[in-house]
């Protein structure tokens, strides 16, 4: 829909352009596409009435826009001030750079150390006690210097500049600027209020209502009703007004949010979150208690099983299985084969003595040599019985050397943890104590070394078997020391530091002797392999 304003309001009222401040009328052709404006213009018949209504509405909009423009004057002034300061800072920086370049060029021309003509003069000027130093000290050194007094006078606390910039000063720059802005805003506000005040006969609103009343009779009543409706919509005194509904919705939303984050309400989000966390913590605590109870039950079962195994004849078989498992792992590392034989008969009829047989591997110095191991965890088993049983085991399994393993729990009281009796070694081992593994390892390594010696006796082989014997004797000695230390550590806690240090030294010596034994066995192996 299009609307055309053919003449200004000055011409419609029969006034000349000179009476309208000398401004000439402007012909406007407007294409209106806003629905509200089209609906308002459609209420007037096409022609002079519609044009006059549109001109008055345009005038009201122009006055409103001027008022809004006055309100943003302060913001525009601040932005312009910031822009001017930025431009000034940029100009000062550029001027600073230009001056710096010019000064550097001139100083290089006159004061260059190589080409300058006043080098000596410069040295005298810039010396510590030179004229320039004295002059500068006179001007800038001390609080009473000319430079300090000048700065205080111009930019000090009591200077004119600081007084002007002090916001507390009534005649300062900021105060003047604030007063000017307040005055301008007040004038613009008063002017706009006057234009929309019905008490002002020359106001735009009064003129609009008067003109509308004169032209359309009861239209003023309708407009008043509409204005009253609009005022009611934005009044808090009306419960059903738009503003009252908005305030109610905001208040309700605020109450809802407050209730959701309050612990006083059982249905709030925070209360539900607290209950869920409490339930989760309670469930977790319950699971932990159940887990602890299960652990306690499992531990009690383990203790009961161990006690039952210790009271029954089964505990000896368990110890034999532990010894066989340990020997299997050690034999695998050495390239040998460890075979449990406690449930099979040997060379002797119906005789099962000899729990495990170690056959030396083909890569060893004595391939095929056999070592029999007998494990025993039985109360009251004496040393004589052990020697007799290991001898029977060697005969039954066809082995040259034997190792008898006592359990730490049932071993004779004064038995050394490592000892040798002819072709047999007696060791004390605890399946639950890794520190006792060294005794069982020493017994197996010593038996393997003696197997190597028994395999071949050749004059061409220069093997230090004396070193092997010494190593074995040293192992026996150190093993006895470890056993003494263990017994002392169990009864004397006050000397724990000394005892632990002795254990460490004996263990290191034992490991050293084992290493010597390994080296001699390795030499024996190489010499036997190399011999024709």
Description:
Residues 1-15 and 458-462 have low confidence and may be disordered. The chain starts with a strand and ends with a helix. The protein is elongated, with a radius of gyration of 57 Å. The chain is 64% helix and 8% strand. It has helices spanning 9-12, 35-42, 48-71, 73-111, 119-126, 131-140, 146-155, 160-165, 173-195, 204-216, 219-233, 242-260, 269-311, 314-334, 383-397, 437-455, 465-491, 496-530, and strands spanning 2-5, 28-31, 337-340, 356-359, 370-376, 401-407, 418-421, 424-429. The strands form two sheets. Strands 3-4-5-6-8-7 form a six-stranded mixed sheet, with helices on both faces. Helix 3 (48-71) packs antiparallel against helix 9 and helix 17 runs antiparallel to helix 18. The protein is of the alpha/beta class. The longest helix has 43 residues, at 269-311.
């Amino acid at each position: 829909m299009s609307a055309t304003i053919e003449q200004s309001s000055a011409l419609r009222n029969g006034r000349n352009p000179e009476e309208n401040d000398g401004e000439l009328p402007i012909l406007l052709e407007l294409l209106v596409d806003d629905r509200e404006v089209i609906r308002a213009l459609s209420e007037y018949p096409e022609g002079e009435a519609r044009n006059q209504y549109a001109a008055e509405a345009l005038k009201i909009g122009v006055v409103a826009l001027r008022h809004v423009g006055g309100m943003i004057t302060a913001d525009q002034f601040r932005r312009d001030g910031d822009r001017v300061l930025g431009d000034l800072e940029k100009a000062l920086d550029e001027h600073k750079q230009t001056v710096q370049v010019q000064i550097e060029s001139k100083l290089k021309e006159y004061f260059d150390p190589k080409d300058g003509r006043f080098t000596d003069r410069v040295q005298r000027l810039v010396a510590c006690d030179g004229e320039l130093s004295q002059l500068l000290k006179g001007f800038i050194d001390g609080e009473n210097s000319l430079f300090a007094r000048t700065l205080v006078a111009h930019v000090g606390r009591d200077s004119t500049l600081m007084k002007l910039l002090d916001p507390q000063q009534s005649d300062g720059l900021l105060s003047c600027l604030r007063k000017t802005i307040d005055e301008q805003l007040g004038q613009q506000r008063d002017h706009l209020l006057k234009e929309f005040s019905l008490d002002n006969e020359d106001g735009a609103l009064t003129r609009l209502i008067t003109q509308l009343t004169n032209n359309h009779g009861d239209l003023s009543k309708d407009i008043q009703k509409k204005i009253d409706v609009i005022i009611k919509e934005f009044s808090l005194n009306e419960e059903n007004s738009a503003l009252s509904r908005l305030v109610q919705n905001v208040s309700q939303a605020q109450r809802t949010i407050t209730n959701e984050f309050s612990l006083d309400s059982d249905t709030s989000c925070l209360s539900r979150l607290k209950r869920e966390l409490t339930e989760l913590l309670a469930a977790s605590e319950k699971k932990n208690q159940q887990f602890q109870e299960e652990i306690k039950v499992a531990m009690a079962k383990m203790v009961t099983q161990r006690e039952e195994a210790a009271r029954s004849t089964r505990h000896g078989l368990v110890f034999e299985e532990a010894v066989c498992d340990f020997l299997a792992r050690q034999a695998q590392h050495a390239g040998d084969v460890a075979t449990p034989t406690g449930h099979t008969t040997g060379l002797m009829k119906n005789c099962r003595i000899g729990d495990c047989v170690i056959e030396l591997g083909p890569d060893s110095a004595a391939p095929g040599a056999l070592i029999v191991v007998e494990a025993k965890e039985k109360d009251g088993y004496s040393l004589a019985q052990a020697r007799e049983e290991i001898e029977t085991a060697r005969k039954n399994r066809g082995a040259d050397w034997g190792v008898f393993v006592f359990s730490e729990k049932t071993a004779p009281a004064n038995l050394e943890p490592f000892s040798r009796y002819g072709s047999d070694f007696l060791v004390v081992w605890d399946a639950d104590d890794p520190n006792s593994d060294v005794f069982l390892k020493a017994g197996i390594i010593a038996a393997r070394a003696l197997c190597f010696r028994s395999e071949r006796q050749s004059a061409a082989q220069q093997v230090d078997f004396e070193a092997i014997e010494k190593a074995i004797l040293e192992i026996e000695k150190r093993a006895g020391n470890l056993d003494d230390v263990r017994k002392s550590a169990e009864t004397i806690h006050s000397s724990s530091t000394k005892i632990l240090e002795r254990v460490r030294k004996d263990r290191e010596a034992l490991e050293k002797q084992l290493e010597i034994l390994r080296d001699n066995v390795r030499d024996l192996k190489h010499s036997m392999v190399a011999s024709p």
